[in-house]
Amino acid sequence: MRSAIISRVRRPIVAALCFATLLLAAQMGRADKLEMKDGRVYEGRLARLSSAGQQPVTAAAEGGEAQPIVLIDDNLRRIFVPKGQVQQAVASDLPPNEAFPIQQRVVRQGARVTPIGPLSHISAWDEFGRRSLEMQTGKDLINIIQGITVITPQWTKVESIQQGGKNYTWDMRIATSSIPTEMLKKIVHKRVGDKLDGRLKVVRLFLQGERYGEAQAELEQIIADFPENKRQFEPTLRELRQLFARRALEEIKVRRGAGQHKLAIQLLEGFPAEGVAGETLQAVKQTLDEYRLDYDHVNQVIKKLDEHRAALDDAALGKKLEPIRDEIVEELNLHSLNRMAAYRQSWDDDKLKPEGKLALGISGWLVGADDAVQNLPVAVSLVKVRDLVRQYLIEPVAERRRELLAEISSQEGATPQLVAKLLEYLLPPVATEPQTDGQPKDAPARFYELQVAGLAGEPEVTYYIQLPPEYDPHRRYPTIVTLNGSGTTPKLQIDWWAGSAGAEGERHGQGTRYGYIVIAPAWAKEGQAGYNFSAAEHIAVLNSLRDATRRFSIDTDRVFLSGHSMGGSAAWDIGLAHPDLWAGIIPIVARGDKYVELYWENLRRVPFYLVGGQLDGGLSNKNAKEIDRYMKRGFNATWVEYQGRCHENFSDEILRLFDWMSRYQRDFFPKDFTCHSLRPGDCFFWWVELANFSEKAMVEPEEFPRKGSRPARTKALVNAANGLNVSTGAGKTTVWLAPELVDFQQKISVTVNGKSARLPATGVAPSLSVLLEDARTRADRLHPFWAKVEMPSGDVNGGEDAL
């Protein structure tokens, strides 16, 4: 498979280089191209299946049967997707990939490697393309020597080679990018020798793998070794330099998109100009000019604030505005500049007095440009309201919160509309200083070890969090919550996503590169061998996320839940039990069973991406039933199965995971959904909260499965008449309201199990009390609820229950 980016880039590369003898080749190859509705593109051999457990070779013979699953095989992985998520599938012409056959003494006859568990040891590759490994199969620990037999730009074939003792047959595929570059060079150079044709094959290998720096270095060495061919290859070398420069510019765009502006500017200012095409240099100049313009705008805002404050008729008022002026001057940057758009547009308005302009600047800073006001007393009031709201969110004593609420309510700017916007732009209310005391010099930068309350009666939960480079609380960051497996640690989960810390304390992994926050709770007990489906495990994960959201600037619409092994199984179950929290769920080498089997409908609105190995202890067959449920119903589910692989961490897939995550964010206000509950804690789904389930519908993990038990089913719908309908098996239902769901200016209706709530004759009014308490408890400052309606089972609530 090649991603959409690779597909788009590779064709112009090949076209640009066809004039050179370097890439003179052959006929175009045939492949299938699968274009997904979310923009992903896969290439390989296409098959259509009636079941995820079906063998592709038999699929073609079953043409008369409904085949809702599409499989694409790229020689490294098999990717299963639902037909309903496919935009189109077409045959395409592709230039042939370079392939390096490596001669090894491959085992042709021997015991077959069957589904196995984790590998206990893997050695590094040697220059002959060989390595040894140990693995557990059944009761035996066996040793196998593997040899690379084929190398292509995207995938490498690895097979068992003959050794003394018992031999095993095994065909495994790995990503070529997973082989260290220097060792890859040694392996292929030993294969091709010193002849020019072979050396050019190495250039093509790197070029087709989009490793332009390595391709350029190889070609430069060829020119040095074969100077008589210099004139022939120099045009190609120039083109490689252009490709490398364009790739460098793309990387700058990635860093800019991740909010790493200092690094982006540093790379732009140091961008090499020699031999680089004018259009690329123009793009570099344009990006630098955009940065300079943005910084000019920051300086202009600061200058205008002082001018407008000095122009006030009331000097005392100008003095009163000094603290908020100083705050804006201190904190205004590229991430917060957009808040001042309304203020900047007011500068040339001669009809608007300095008071009105300052009001737009101050209120825009606090609630955003779209909700900025021209009333200076209201804007000044918002400063006080903002500070009181921050105190409310962190106040542990209920009586003190009531006092703060009364004080907030007395302020001129304390409307639910403006307080909701204040919450959106509020800095994380819990101040968390960098942890430097007692840390070694090479400790990871921006790394925290924190504690949060666990389940009642359980000890506190430790969680670890890694912030990205140039972290700024004025920017909201996508976030990964990752759960470790047995025999590994939360810290290693952060290493997997963000990279291990180097000598200078910086991480250089993909999470760092793309600007993600990574959270790793210590969710399991020491020595735990499997996931227990328990409330304590759920609370450890959920409380860690909520605590981190109070401390750091997390984009709650872009939180992804992942895990490896038993942590992947936990992510699968926790994701389905609390589907309103996640932008996507990514179990890796996981098993979906028990509650997962009964909660399948909870996944309808949550993107899902499962990664595993073909030989991972039979997990593929065990998970096929759940995958079938998702795909046959057209859920947004992807299953990636690596060929010949077992229970591993699958770092090969990490770039594709970030590409997938970049396409999704949570829809927190769906207009209809259906969910199931089988545990008391699985009780909050988007805008419906449930309690008092029937005991017959609740099954604790230690009782699972209990004969005759059925999950409580909840179905919720926003109707066309400004109403909400809920059907549920819970004894108590709370329907939470927000402007995204209902119009508070119109009559609202709420119906639970066919019974209508008796709401106040004046309508359901937004409530500061509900809004602030919801933001405090759920810690989701992006989407606070403005009101709620509670409905007891078998009765209809009175108007006083509609807050």
Task: Please tell me about this protein's structure.
With about 800 residues, the protein is of the alpha+beta class. The protein is about 35% helix and about 20% strand. The chain has 23 helices and 30 strands. The strands form five sheets. It has a 13-stranded mixed beta sheet with strand order 5-1-2-3-4-21-20-19-18-16-17-15-14, with helices on both faces. Strands 6, 8, 9, 10, 11 and 13 form a six-stranded antiparallel beta sheet that branches. Strands 22-25-26-28-29 form a five-stranded mixed beta sheet, with no helix packed on it. A hairpin with a 4-residue loop joins strand 1 (about 30-35) and strand 2. Helix 5 (about 210-225) packs antiparallel against helix 6 (about 230-255). The radius of gyration is 30 Å and the shape is globular. The protein starts with a helix and ends in an 11-residue tail after the last strand.
- The pLDDT mean sits at 91
Shape call: globular
Biggest sheet descriptor: 13 strands, mixed
Tally the beta strands: 30
Poorly predicted tracts of residues = 1-28, 58-64, 794-803
In terms of DSSP E residues, the strand content is: 15-25%
C-alpha-based Rg, rounded: 30 Å
| Termini separation | 54 Å
Query: Structural class of the secondary elements?
Result: alpha+beta
Supply database-style keywords.
803 residues; alpha+beta; 13-stranded mixed beta sheet; 6-stranded antiparallel beta sheet; 30 strands; globular
